[in-house]
């Protein structure tokens, strides 16, 4: 988690100071400003690559830890399956890379060229939120849709024969 935070802070810093002078980031459109900027697409591509690598690490680390836990095999597979859904987020991040490369070609209409990037970024965020909510959704499904509580099963009275 610390690596994710440091990576995010580093890219905020790079994004803020990618132009010299800093004001060039919002005045280069005029064509009158002088200075140099690192292309925003290159910043986005490096950010995407690092995020994909971190996503894969975040996918593999829990799987190895869960497999070593003292759980029933079925529960281990269920938990690992839930974590493996985050692989979809990594796939969406990888799908966004060609859109970034297309945007790099200096389009005549950057707003239109940016649409695939925006769409895939939105998909990535929404899928991430959904996957983060899956444990709660499971509890909702068990309790309200199926109409019973797992607690009731565990606290069933013991009867003697």
Automatic annotation (TrEMBL):
<feature type="transmembrane region" description="Helical">
    <location>
        <begin position="76"/>
        <end position="97"/>
    </location>
</feature>
<keyword id="KW-0812">Transmembrane</keyword>
<protein>
    <recommendedName>
        <fullName>Rhodopsin domain-containing protein</fullName>
    </recommendedName>
</protein>
<keyword id="KW-0472">Membrane</keyword>
<dbReference type="InterPro" id="IPR052337">
    <property type="entry name" value="SAT4-like"/>
</dbReference>
<comment type="similarity">
    <text>Belongs to the SAT4 family.</text>
</comment>
<feature type="transmembrane region" description="Helical">
    <location>
        <begin position="41"/>
        <end position="64"/>
    </location>
</feature>
<keyword id="KW-1133">Transmembrane helix</keyword>
<feature type="transmembrane region" description="Helical">
    <location>
        <begin position="117"/>
        <end position="146"/>
    </location>
</feature>
<feature type="domain" description="Rhodopsin">
    <location>
        <begin position="1"/>
        <end position="142"/>
    </location>
</feature>
<dbReference type="GO" id="GO:0016020">
    <property type="term" value="C:membrane"/>
</dbReference>
<dbReference type="InterPro" id="IPR049326">
    <property type="entry name" value="Rhodopsin_dom_fungi"/>
</dbReference>
<dbReference type="Pfam" id="PF20684">
    <property type="entry name" value="Fung_rhodopsin"/>
</dbReference>
């Amino acid at each position: 988690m610390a690596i994710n935070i440091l990576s995010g802070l580093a890219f905020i810093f790079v994004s803020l100071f990618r132009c010299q002078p800093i004001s060039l980031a919002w005045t280069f459109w005029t064509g009158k400003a002088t200075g140099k900027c690192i292309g925003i697409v290159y910043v986005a591509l490096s950010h995407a690559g690092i995020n994909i690598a971190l996503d894969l690490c975040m996918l593999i680390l829990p799987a190895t830890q869960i497999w070593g836990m003292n759980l029933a095999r079925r529960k281990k597979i269920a938990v690992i399956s839930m974590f493996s859904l985050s692989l979809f987020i990594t796939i969406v991040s990888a799908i966004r890379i060609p859109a970034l490369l297309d945007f790099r070609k200096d389009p005549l209409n950057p707003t239109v060229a940016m649409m695939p990037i925006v769409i895939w970024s939105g998909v990535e965020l929404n899928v991430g939120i959904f996957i983060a909510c899956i444990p709660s959704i499971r509890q909702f499904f068990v309790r309200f849709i199926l109409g019973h509580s797992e607690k009731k099963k565990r606290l069933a009275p013991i009867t003697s024969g």
